[in-house]
Amino acid sequence: MDYIIDVKDLRKEFTSHSSRSGLKGAFRDLFTRNYTIKTAVNDVSLQIKKGEMVGYIGENGAGKSTTIKMLTGILTPTSGLVRVNGMNPHKDREQFVRSIGVVFGQRSQLWWDIAVQESFRLLKKVYNVPDEFYNTHMADVIKTLGIEPLLDKPVRKLSLGQRMRCELAAALIHNPPLLFLDEPTIGLDVLVKLRIREFLKEINAKYGTTILLTTHDLSDIEALCERVIMLDEGQIIYDGALRKLRENWGEGKQIQFAFAEEATHAELQSLTQGHLVLWEQGGNASNWTASVENNEDIISAVIGRVVGAKKIADLKIVEITTEEIIRNIYEEGVIRNG
Amino acid sequence: MSYLSIFFQYAGQYLKTRLTYRADMLVEIFSDLLFQAVNLIFILVVFGHTSLLSGWSKDEMVFIYGFFLVPFAIFGAFFNIWDFTDRYIVKGEMDRILTRPIHSLFQIILERMELESLFGVITGLGIMFYSGHQLGLSLHWYDPFVFVLLVAGGALVYAGIFVALASIGFWSDSKTDIMPMMYNIGNYGRYPVNIYNRIIRYVLTWILPFAFVGVYPSAYFLGRDEWYGYAFFTPVIGVIFFGLSVVFWNYGVTKYRGAGN
């Protein structure tokens, strides 16, 4: 089986020196330094097939960006094997980057002062895209993203959502078979998010573009990816179907109570004694959420006891969201008994 | 060659943007001219007190200054990398550079070019023709070609030193004053090196070879044949220093640590 991304035991260490305290320490630092090695990515192995859409998630500092930067040839790995599109990203960098598209949500690929279409034209030259291909392909991309009206405006005058759509278009000028998206929907409103997701699905279906996506917004992953890779402290802690993650972890339910008066944790806990209930406070002291097992008897019993003792303004039963599943995994570790 | 056509595409875009901010461009050209005038006045004031400096006359000094302006203008137009560490390493713009299929240094040259600096070429030529006329210098048919070669060598010397300095940013992104200091040292190259003591002369020739930007190549046009060896060595020094700095740069790129998000 040919993999489009094939990574084995990838590792990246950063050395930094820690300075000693005080003036005396500063003098000592001049001569001998204390170096600390921080392993940002710790022996990561992963394979991605052509046409897959994979979500790459983890907390801040888990090593997501570092991995992406090694896969795109920006950073040189400390050790390990990387083959992306059959090439070694940092070795044949200039050749390699022709076969990928990159969007960094927090960094613009476009020229700030010039009109969007001028940016496109420069990039077209940089990637050496033939005219006829550019005309048909880009016309399609521009239409699907709905950015025709923005083409003659300078980038600095665009809103974030408009800019992001242009960034996406810019990353696709050379129609790369592999697309890296680092936080592509950060700070965008719901409509733009939906539009971008639709667009990504479309190019994935149309060109078989492989997409690796990092995001903090798990709804992106839910909408797009069948597979997630979860990273913690530089190591992969889960690699598999999103569905499975939900099945194994999302079996509980949440009951959201809005009480007519304030309630305390101890008070609620004593009410539901005897059942495994996790109480968490919501926005204020009268909003509380109870996490319980997905079992009708327990749910009824908990509601019954609480409603019997306290006045209720509102009540809602919801399934545990992916976000909470992920949070639980980070708190408890991925291996759970049972 | 595709790099050349990419260059013209960028240059065209640059002019287009600059022309929409005409006032900025005029101010910049004006301040460049003012800076050059101040330096010229300095030379003239020095010679108000003496007619010869270590065997060099006023007009010769002015000629050297005029020559110096040409490679310096070319350097200034294309190697605006004095703020490389701040702009590209600390702010992480290097990430973007490295995801594009052109050599990283070339991209930075393209992005940071300031073509209005090329105005200095005209000033330099003007000063050279004026002082050359005063000195009664004659022009041979091959002189323009030699001129181009020596100017290219001088510009490459400058570029080499500053590219190497910028490359340090790949290892350490702390702020240093090394860049402005180097600009100052660079100015010593536009005075005849035999007015300095031996050590400084050695440094300006072999370590930080700024003498190859001003005095050595000018010696050729001034007919100072005792310096001819150095003068013809200018392009060689330029290629060596620039070549080494690019090697150093390429090595630095593999050490790039990226900016944290």
Overall form of chain A: globular
* The top level CATH class name of the largest domain in chain A: Alpha Beta
Distance between the amino and carboxyl termini of chain A: 34 Å
Task: Count the beta strands of chain B.
Answer: 2
Give the CATH superfamily of the largest domain in chain A.
P-loop containing nucleotide triphosphate hydrolases
* Contiguous uncertain segments of 5+ residues of chain B: none
Alpha-beta classification of chain A: alpha/beta
Overall average residue pLDDT of chain B: 89
Strand segment count of chain A: 13
Order of helices and strands of chain B: HHEEHHHHHHHHHH
* Alpha plus pi helix count of chain B: 12
Give the overall shape of chain B. Answer: globular
SS-derived structural category of chain B = mainly alpha
The quaternary state of the protein chains shown equals heterodimer
Residue share in helix of chain A: 25-40%
Q: What is the alpha-carbon Rg of chain B in Å?
A: 19 Å
- Proportion of strand residues of chain B: under 5%
Distance between the termini of chain B: 37 Å
Protein name (chain B): ABC-2 family transporter protein
Keywords (chain B): Membrane, Transmembrane, Transmembrane helix
InterPro entries (chain B): ABC-2_transporter-like
Pfam families (chain B): ABC2_membrane_6 (PF06182)
Architecture overview:
- The complex is a heterodimer of chains A (338) and B (261).
- Chain A is α/β, with parallel strands linked by helices and 338 residues long.
- Chain A folds into 2 domains: 3-247, 3-Layer(aba) Sandwich (Rossmann fold), CATH 3.40.50; 251-319, Alpha-Beta Plaits, CATH 3.30.70.1150.
- Helices cover 37% and strands 29% of the residues of chain A.
- Chain A has helices at 22-31, 64-71, 93-96, 116-126, 131-145, 160-171, 190-207, 218-224, 242-249, 265-271, 296-309, 322-332; strands at 3-18, 34-49, 53-58, 79-84, 100-104, 178-182, 210-214, 227-232, 235-241, 253-259, 278-281, 287-292, 312-319.
- In chain A, the strands form 3 sheets. Chain A has a 6-stranded mixed sheet with strand order 5-6-7-3-8-9, with helices on both faces. A 4-stranded antiparallel sheet of chain A has the order 11-12-10-13, with helices on one face.
- The longest helix of chain A has 18 residues, at 190-207.
- Chain B has 261 residues and is an all-alpha fold.
- Chain B has one domain (2-254).
- Chain B contains 12 helices and 2 strands.
- Chain B has helices at residues 2-20, 22-49, 58-78, 84-90, 93-98, 104-112, 119-135, 143-167, 178-187, 198-207, 215-221, 228-254, and strands at 52-53, 56-57.
- Chain B has a two-stranded antiparallel ribbon with strand order 1-2.
- Chain B is globular and about 55 Å long.
- At the A-B interface, α2, α3, β5 and α4 of A face α1 and α5 of B.
